[in-house]
Records
---
Amino acid sequence: MSIWTRITEALQALAAGQSLSEVFERLRTPPERSVAFTIAVIALSAKMAKADGLVTRDEVTAFRDVFQIAREDEAGAARLFNLARQDVAGFEDYARKIKAMYRERVDCLSDLMEGLFHIAMADGQYHPAEDAFLARVAEIFGLPVQDFSALRARFVPDAPKDPWVILGLRPDATPAEARAQWKRLVRENHPDAMMARGLPKEAVRLAERRMADINRAWEAIEAGAA
């Protein structure tokens, strides 16, 4: 059964009157967790977007870049966006449910934050309201401050591209610590490791840009230490 078939079943539950929060309650374990990841990115993106009742082309395109939504599934993704916008539950309620679903798996929550940043930058702009939203979600998720700073540094065009920040390192970290951190990040972002975290295979594409940023940051640090 494909991920979008299972998401369609979740949509049917929503249409029957269940809230997204109730749907999340049933998606705690694999393989359902991969469905939850996709729904969580869409739902939180919808809460982050302007509440104009419509899904923009940029939003759908950005989501399709990650999840490779087939043309026939775009309507379902758009419907989920709009259902999330109309749901009376606030984004903090969603974030808490998602946090409970992944428990202490900060790596999975960091993957989800990466998807949210991708959607936030779909229109090429990073608004203060989006920054406040993402910072609050990261806080609820329990994401370390340095991890959120690394995401902001990587995604926001006018953010300082400090390689130490991108690798989640302290300013006083040694080159040896930087190398160890770089190796750890490369290992954790291998496609097999991401699949083991319960991410849908489509979401592994999130790692492509991440690995490029990680390697670029390490190269800058290594060149400076030479």
Note: The longest helix spans residues 206-225.
---
Amino acid sequence: MSMLFNLIAAHSTTHGGVLNLLHYITFRAGGACFTALILSLLLGRPFIAKLRQIQRQGQPIRSVGPERHILEKAGTPTMGGGLILFALTSSTLLWADLHNGFIWAVLLTTLGFGAVGFADDYLKLAKGNSKGVSKKARLGCEFLIAYIAGIWLQSLTPPELRNALAFPFAKSFMLPLGYIFPLFAMLTITGFGNAVNLTDGLDGLATVPTIITSLVFTFIAYLVGNHIFADYLQLHYVPGSGELSIFCAALIGAGLGFLWFNAPPAEVFMGDTGSLALGGALGAVAIAVKHELVLCLVGGLFVVETISVILQVFWFKRTGQRIFLMAPLHHHFEKKGWQEPKIVVRFWIISIILGLCGLSTLKLR
């Protein structure tokens, strides 16, 4: 059982009351969310103060970005994702079943991507510019972590689902991927890690869609991991994956606590430390619960932001012209004269709509 369960059990002579509640995933998920939120709120202020002390110049602002960022965002500390990761990890270890392989696979993948992001942020600060780890080295590390995660998650999945890709709205059809499934998992996890990273360009822009996506996957993980609900909703049952709803709930709490300080105007940026880790976490959870395509729908905002960059680069290399005024997409609207809060809130609204669409896939089969 969870670390908290074991701690209470060691000092308890009965097995009723709170100890009995710890058997329920829903109770522990609520506890994980609340714990992560409190940790983020309590530690946020001193954490930011320490970052300001260390990073006197704040995060280096890209010279090729919108001009106003150089004036308005200069001096804001980065690496705030460390706060999210601490709250997320602490809450997960406290409330989740530490004998569950899915928990360790997803948590270590998240921390691995966070470590890559930390190295990138650190080099940017050390060099005093917006260039950190080389693209090849960074992608190489991400691919390696994600590939190992894919094999690990594959080994935890029932044989009949292990190498297959599930489709939303389909009751039983699954596309067999065979030996290439770990490669598919690698691309999914790495792709979402970088998608969230690209979206993290305005205050609070990536934080709330991550929270919304985590909320949706809290429900999905709980239902997929429960044989009765999975059978009723005609979902593919993945034993043990329900425990990931605790991880997702902790991510929601950590994200809400961070948003308190990241809301416009941001007091701290999550940096690559946070954005890569959060995206990697979402990708790993989706692989674990066999809802990879639903992640593309629920996290559609991240997908569109990434596609805007791919299209911009491709078209510019082919024709020398740009499709968007600036990519990723949120910068295009900045160039059109939209105020930052308007862009952020409208993107949040889109993310909520996509989240609701994702939830509808659970019943429309």
Note: The chain has one domain: 31-46+79-360.
